[in-house]
Batch of 4 targets.
Target 1
Amino acid sequence: ILGVEDMTFTYGDAPVELYPSTSQGFPVIIRSLLPSSFTVEGNILTIVGAGSGQMSFTHLGNDYYMAQMKTVNITVYKATQTGFSFANLERAVGDPAIQFPAVSEQGFSISYNSSNTNVATVSGNSITIVGQGESTIQASNQGNYNYNPIDESFTLTVSPQPKQEQTISNF
């Protein structure tokens, strides 16, 4: 059986059309040996979950050629969650609270923590500035069987409130 090798995918990849063949032109039957990660309908492979397994390719032969089967390994990796990005921030004492995404685009809740609650406190997905200094903000979630967890951090630097100009009048 020609044109079949071990394959790797990522959860969320588009369906793939497979073109196995034999040197004699026999039809090839494709079968998924792990339907929880991928399915095969005709010659279309569709990813349905992360995991690994095997796929078999079989031709039945005829009076002159023996039947043949080839098994290949299929690996489907977890996808990366999307819908958020974190960069270092600079703010001043007295600035309004900062709102971050409460969930990833895949629907998983994101938790936030502040390393220095004298600078910033966290309530849900809102970060409130409480004082001058630096705090590392940690954003995380567990992911699931098909998606990798989030575990990212960024630095929030808070400067003192800028002094306002005073106007003296009525001399």
Note: The mean pLDDT is 90.
Target 2
Amino acid sequence: TMRTRHRVRNSGLVAIGVGVLLMLSAAPALAGTRAVIPVPCCFVSETVELGGSVYALAQQPPGSGPEQPTLVRIDPETNRVTASLGLPNGTSAGNQLDATPMVAALGSIWVVAYFENEVLRIDPESMTVIATIATGRSPDSIAFDGSSLWVPLFNDRSVVRINPRRNAVVH
């Protein structure tokens, strides 16, 4: 059984195991609270918090099947998956698991679509893709600096900057 462990930035979550998200409360009033939440696919590669919910990107381990991730929204009050969204052709495989394939910024969830050469902007409320931004070859990570999104392109060996207010790459 493959085990993956990932501590989430700015929260008390730990993704562990195959097909589950182990949630540990960071709030002092809920110290010691635990929940094991089943998620689709096989492992959680990244989680972010936005608007009181937790979003997890779940996908197959590299080389074990189709690399089509699922974005799931989890209500930390009930510890239940409240919505999910299948994403196209997944994130990169191989040694790219240390990359950050999604980020929460400006009220949206942003996910790289490695094989589609795009970044997807997802509305967390409706769990729909509201913008698709062409980036160049093989976007494998994403970061937000407070005003722009930055996306390294693995095969282009470059980095692009996205203006999130225009949903476009800055040239």
Note: The CA atoms of residues 42 and 64 lie 10 Å apart.
Target 3
Amino acid sequence: GTTEYSALADRRNVVVIGGDLRRPTLSALLGAAEAPGLGDYLSDPQLGLQECLHRVEGRANLVAMPAGRIRDRRGPAEVLRSAEVAAVIERLREHCDHILVDGPPLLPVVDALELAKVSDAVVISLYASRSRRRALDRALRLLDDAGAAPVLGYVLSGVQRAEERYGPGGY
């Protein structure tokens, strides 16, 4: 979440894109403006890219492009499937070191798969007590079958720290 984005932005110019157009959370996570954002930009030809980029307070090198809202009749998957998403990423590459797309869960909807197709790499986020191996295997197969970007790694959250102790089982 915020810690990872902020740590990366301490050293590089980073743009974080809110790619979950169904249940946007990036703005609240980073304390950035909610709109305009990606959905607004992709559905309103009058809107400029700079209008959709918002500085994150306290982080000089971190810029957020929130999910925003879709202003036309297309659904999220259709918007994310468009060539315009790749064009946005290409334009942003000219001005920053890293672009992170915070997408929706991979299995329930096709949206994340569409984003993975225009990305250089995928990082899969897992929640320790909820994520199941079978679901992870299915997600990896979906990515592979779609010709999506390679999986760079995994982030495991929700891990409960065991009591630190010496002796049997303490290491």
Note: The beta strands are 14-18, 54-56, 59-65, 98-102, 122-127, 151-157.
Target 4
Amino acid sequence: SGALVSGIPFARMKGMTDAPESYIFSQIPDSSAAEAFSFHQLVASSDPHIMPRSESQIKVFAERGELFGVRKATSGTFVAICYATLEERSHEWEIGGLTVLDELRKLGIGTVLVRFTLCSVIANERPWDFGDKIIAHVHEENPKPRGLLQAIGFELLAGKEIGRASCRERV
């Protein structure tokens, strides 16, 4: 026979009418690259600080195992994505393309996704064994990701021209 456990049952946290949404963090397979690109386009089109990526770039990130995302557990729809890609000539892993739905910002989803991505790069790619650095580029007029990046150990280094936008480089 099982042990009897007594306690006070709670259906939900005080003030909550429904259970909170659950999210799944994962590496995005190439079979989901088109869906990830559609999400990226949706968010990037309304945020001038996000460098738009082409569908072929997103597909290549997914094929190489460099694309990471967050989906709603109930519907499977994307709510956030980012990538980690190696620039072999400069020996730099770039963490970039962090896009999170506006209505889900400030929940920590972006922070967890960047940490998840970093853990994958560090555990699977061992960048320091090969003399590689891990960097991120942030548009100089975009303060949103700076606090996130500093909180997980990135340091502000210097301004740098990248493509069509001026960015601050972090390592």
Note: The chain has four helices and seven strands.
